[in-house]
Amino acid sequence: MTLLPFAVAVSVAFAVPLLGEASADQVSRILVSLQKNLLTPIPLCFLLGIICTRIHGGIKIPKELYYSIAIFLLMSIGFIGGHELAHEYQAHGVATIWKPALATLFLGCVTPITSFVVLRYIGGMSIADSAGIAAHYGSTSAVTYAVANSFVEQAGHPANSFLPTLVTLLECPGIAIALVIGAALSAKERAARAAESGRKVKESKLGEALYEVMTGQSIMLMAGLLVIGFVSTLYMDPKGFQPFYDFFQSKGMLFRGALCIFLLEMGLVAGEKLGDLLKVGPFLVAFGILIPLIHGFLGVYLGHMAGLNLGGCAVLGAIVSSASYIAAPPAVRLTLPEANPTYSITAALAITFPFNIAFGIPIYFEMAKFVGAQ
Amino acid sequence: MQLYPLKIVTVVGESVIMEDIAERGVELGATGYTMSEVIGHGSRSARNVGSTAGGAKTLKVEFVVPTDVATTILDEISHEYFEHYAIIAWLSDVSVMRGEQYTRKSGG
Q1: Which residues of A fall within a CB distance of 8 Å from B51?
Q2: Strand partners, B59
Q3: A166 CB burial (10 A radius; 0-12, 13-18, 19+)
């Protein structure tokens, strides 16, 4: 906790070169962008959810509807991603895709390590807690992708077509790396505890947890539908393909409406978790805002270097900065049971997710303009 | 009507570990189990991450077993899961019909 000023100083030092060159004009553009984003149905539904929970209001989204919508959103992201990927492949082969894919994998490996180092050595958190939170921040949130994608489409700068492929690539490595770090570093402590109690060392569930992440609903649906969208675009008659496209398309009324309902539920859950903000302390609150900005900038910058367009850079920044709250929690729970889930869930869901939805996405969009993406 | 005196081990906990517990119970001598979703709140409910949005899931698993198997299961669960997970377990007496169904014939 005493190291909080240091953490802020490091982040400010990181951001100064950016802000130093930003003119008053750019700052006002960011503010306009923020306002444009905030006053749209998706963040407003999220806000409604938060308010409803805080005042003990009566909105209740049935679990089955929530799961159905999650399935539809994941299928849409995968299917449309596969469809657009097929067009990209037909036009350019893999020439435009391999660099962003490599950059995404690199980011997936770097973000859990930066998160772990900051949490452990600046925040002074335990190994298990640091690794547990790092696993959440190393992975990504598909809903943040959907919201960011809608934002850049509305801003008239649609992202490169293959971004859903990058979301799938980003989901796993971060969780795996953080869990391996956590399991390796805490193995000694566990052995000591087992020796003390005279029991055998509990076997690590790392393999089982990673298998569950790889075969979990998010990856299976997104990657599966990506392949289906890709193959059917290449081999199906376009007229026959059209109804599927109409049903799943992300610019369509079904997708956007479903996203509103989903965000309403996310708001209801985040509203409950807001109460935990006091429990997690100011360091984690600062972490939940500053780390996404740093990771987001890295995503935007490397995306630009890898040749992504303006929308693509902003969306890559958003997904790199986002924290997983669906795939990561059970995996962390199985592998690092001593980690306190209140920390990771509160940071991911009550701090970073709302921050990204309200402020982060327009900021990454402006960052993308700033680095010169077009 | 003949009734057989047996024990029922009930374990209620966060969904992420309950399938493991059900399988472990069978490995330790239970011939089967019943699992159901329940709603509740306890001192460690905050640890339950089941499926974050859509509500954290709490599951209940029950084994009808002879006394020796019941104590083995409770011992194992308390050692493996009590320290870090949101979980409670208890033992009750039950009288069941067709009691031979709940006892393994060849010690396996």
Answers
A1: 326, 330
A2: B13, B37
A3: buried
Q: What is the pLDDT of residues A270-298, one digit of tens each?
A: 888 888 888 888 999 999 999 999 999 99
Instruction: Kindly determine whether residue B55 and residue A199, on different chains, have CB atoms separated by under 8 Å.
Output: no
C-alpha radius of gyration, chain A, whole number: 20
State the average pLDDT for chain B. Answer: 85
Whole-complex ipTM: 0.74
- CATH entry, B4-99, from 3.40.50.300, 3.90.230.10, 3.30.70.120, 3.40.720.10: 3.30.70.120
Q: Angle at Cα A214 formed by Cα A208 and Cα A217, nearest 5°?
A: 110
Under DSSP, the state recorded for B5 is E
CA A87 to chain centre: 26
3-state DSSP call for residue B108?
coil
Size of interface A-B (CB pairs under 8 A): 50
- CATH classification (class only), A41-370: mainly alpha
- pLDDT at residue A10 in the model: 45
* Closest Cβ–Cβ partner in B17, B52, B54 for A67: B54
**Any idea how long chain A is?**
374
Name residues 47-86 of chain B within 8 A of A (Cβ).
47-55, 79-80, 83-85
CA–CA min distance A330, chain B (Å): 6
Which residue ranges make up each domain of chain B? Answer: 4-99
- The rounded percent of chain A whose pLDDT value lies above 70 is 92
Nearest to B48 by CA among B77, B14, B84: B14
Nearest Cα to A313, choosing from A366, A251, A236, A241?
A366
What does the alpha-carbon distance between residue A259 and residue A255 come to, in Å, rounded to a whole number?
A: 6
Proportion of chain A above pLDDT 90, given as a percent: 42
Q: Determine contact, residues A145/A319, Cβ cutoff 8 Å.
A: yes
Interface test with A, best of B16, B48, B76, B78 (most A CBs within 10 A): B16
Q: What is the mean pLDDT of chain A?
A: 85
List, for residues A45-67, the tens digit of each pLDDT value.
Answer: 999 999 999 999 989 888 888 88
Q: Given a cut of 50, is residue A14 above it in pLDDT? A: no
Q: How far is B65 from chain A (nearest CA, A)?
A: 25
